[in-house]
């Protein structure tokens, strides 16, 4: 099911903050081959708004028309000027039309001003932490990059918005898609690159990933990976399943198919050549696995993308 994110932009909003939220959602859609997320832009009155650097955005409408899964409030600079009774009343009305509310950068101030963070843990841009605590004693203020407390989300700034977006993708769709998004946006590499380089928080799982990514063209048995790493196959199976929610065999196959997808999009190599580079002796077997993973053949995927 597609989740709808509505971004409420005010004059002076941060381009970087907006991009760091939207681009990971866009990447998740691209990598999943599905519309996992949709987003629209709103302003308080439906009029165009300008970012702090002068980028003008023509919104889809006024905030009174916004309805969806999440409302993302983004005032950034000049947030105190926007914290007026009319806007705060409109935010309270909008809260009833959204399952979750998020305040990015200084958006937390507007949510708190509307009484929408009472009894919640929240953060704000760290320059405003002390003033925020004093102004809203009913909010449990913490100095974190972002906070997700039930149906309230707050984020400290533009760079942290990327961390928040990938955390939401992780919660919604699991660690593999979140890791793929991180790779795509942070270290895509050249079309000739051997494979995506994904990383886990578990040190052993990270070593397993490294071995797998170095042998995509000639896959090993899991017991051979275990021998190289000096542990048992059972240990690898247990740790990978616990960390990534997938068996090592399925993970290996997923990594090989991610490379196949990358080559299908970024090169003109034939299906047979792609199959060989991804450890498939039979192009038909790779095509069947590709279709099962991505819903279409490599050729069809290449044409669509």
Please provide a brief summary of the model.
The chain is of the alpha/beta class and 305 residues long.
Characterise the protein shown here:
With 305 residues, the chain is of the alpha/beta class. The protein folds into 2 domains: 3-172, 3-Layer(aba) Sandwich (Rossmann fold); 190-304, Orthogonal Bundle (Arc Repressor Mutant, subunit A), CATH 1.10.10.60. 50% of the residues lie in helices and 15% in strands. The protein contains 14 helices and 11 strands. Helix 6 (158-173) runs antiparallel to helix 7 and helix 11 (248-266) crosses helix 13. It is elongated, with a radius of gyration of 22 Å. The two termini are 22 Å apart. It holds the Pfam family DJ-1_PfpI. Residues 206-304 form the HTH araC/xylS-type domain. This is Transcriptional regulator, AraC family with amidase-like domain.
């Amino acid at each position: 099911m597609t989740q709808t994110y509505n971004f409420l932009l005010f004059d002076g909003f941060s381009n970087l903050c907006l991009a760091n939220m939207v681009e990971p959602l866009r990447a998740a859609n691209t990598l999943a081959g599905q519309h996992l997320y949709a987003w629209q832009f709103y302003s308080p009155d439906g009029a165009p708004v300008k970012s702090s650097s002068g980028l003008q955005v023509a919104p889809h409408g006024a905030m009174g028309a916004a309805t969806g899964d999440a409302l993302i409030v983004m005032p950034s600079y000049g947030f105190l000027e926007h914290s007026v009774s009319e806007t705060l009343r409109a935010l309270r009305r909008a809260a009833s039309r959204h399952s979750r509310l998020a305040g990015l950068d200084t958006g937390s101030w507007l949510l708190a001003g509307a009484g929408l963070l009472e009894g919640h843990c929240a953060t704000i841009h760290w320059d405003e932490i002390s003033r925020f605590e004093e102004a809203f004693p009913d909010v449990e203020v913490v100095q974190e990059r972002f906070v997700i407390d039930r149906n309230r989300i707050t984020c400290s700034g533009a760079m942290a918005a990327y961390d928040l977006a990938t955390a939401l993708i992780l919660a919604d769709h699991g660690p593999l898609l979140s890791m793929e998004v991180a790779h795509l946006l942070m270290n895509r590499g050249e079309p000739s690159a051997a494979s995506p380089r994904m990383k886990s928080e578990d040190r052993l799982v990270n070593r397993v990933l490294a071995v797998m990514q170095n042998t995509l063209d000639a896959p090993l048995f899991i017991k051979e990976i275990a021998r190289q790493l000096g542990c048992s196959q059972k240990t690898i199976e247990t740790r990978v399943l616990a960390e990534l929610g997938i068996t090592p065999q399925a993970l290996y196959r997923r990594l090989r198919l991610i490379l196949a997808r990358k080559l299908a999009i970024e090169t003109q190599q034939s299906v047979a050549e792609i199959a060989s580079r991804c450890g498939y002796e039979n192009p038909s077997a790779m095509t069947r696995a590709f279709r099962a993973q991505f819903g279409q053949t490599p050729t069809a995927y290449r044409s669509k993308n």
